[in-house]
């Protein structure tokens, strides 16, 4: 017998004993003429308890609804952030390529300084990939959507890396932070986790 079922049976026993005591207290032979009053009191108590339970249930449902709405909003915002980050990286890479073609190193340094925060975001994501790789076996079960989203981002970045490799062969320019090699980073993290177990 599991602990939970044992606790439930114990609670049920206590409830029965309490009900038996209340019934025996209220239904003494001298109180039988007041049975209608006692019955209406119990019905009122039952109605009040049911109303409290319904209010608690509706409150929980409202709280769940609000929580789900916040979760949907956060998911939409994270999707928007990811898209904007990719747009920013694309703009940065194209600008750096144009500045490189004009051989203006001073402007290239200015662009690097301007987009430094974007690199900080990439570093944060790189760290998340390492953490994900180290906990992949449990993350697949507990945070499967997160894992799928990360793999999608990694796949997109791998394709962008491949495009820049091709362009680099033609023009000799590779933007800062490219190739990201996040797929290799994830696989290395998984390999190290397995090796250390």
UniProtKB/TrEMBL annotation:
GO cellular component: exocyst
GO biological process, one term: exocyst localization
Annotated coiled-coil segments of the chain: none
Recorded GO MF terms: SNARE binding
Superkingdom, taxonomy of origin: Eukaryota
A matching Pfam family: Sec6
InterPro entries, A to Z: EXOC3/Sec6
Protein name as catalogued: Uncharacterized protein
């Amino acid at each position: 017998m599991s602990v939970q079922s044992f606790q439930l049976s114990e609670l049920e026993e206590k409830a029965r004993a309490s009900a038996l005591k209340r019934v025996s207290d209220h239904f003494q032979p001298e109180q039988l003429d007041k049975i209608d009053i006692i019955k209406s009191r119990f019905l009122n108590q039952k109605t009040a308890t049911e109303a409290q339970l319904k209010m608690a249930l509706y409150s929980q449902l409202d709280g769940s609804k609000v929580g789900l709405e916040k979760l949907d909003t956060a998911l939409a915002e994270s999707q928007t952030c990811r898209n904007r980050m990719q747009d920013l990286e694309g703009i940065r890479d194209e600008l750096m390529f144009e500045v490189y073609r004009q051989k203006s190193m001073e402007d290239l340094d200015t662009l690097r300084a301007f987009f430094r925060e974007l690199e900080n975001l990439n570093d944060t994501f790189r760290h998340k990939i390492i953490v994900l790789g180290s906990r992949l076996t449990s993350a697949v079960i507990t945070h499967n959507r997160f894992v799928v989203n990360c793999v999608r981002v990694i796949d997109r970045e791998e394709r962008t890396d491949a495009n820049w490799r091709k362009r680099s062969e033609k023009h000799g320019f590779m933007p800062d932070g490219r190739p990201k090699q996040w797929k290799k980073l994830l696989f290395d993290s998984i390999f190290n986790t397995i090796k250390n177990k």
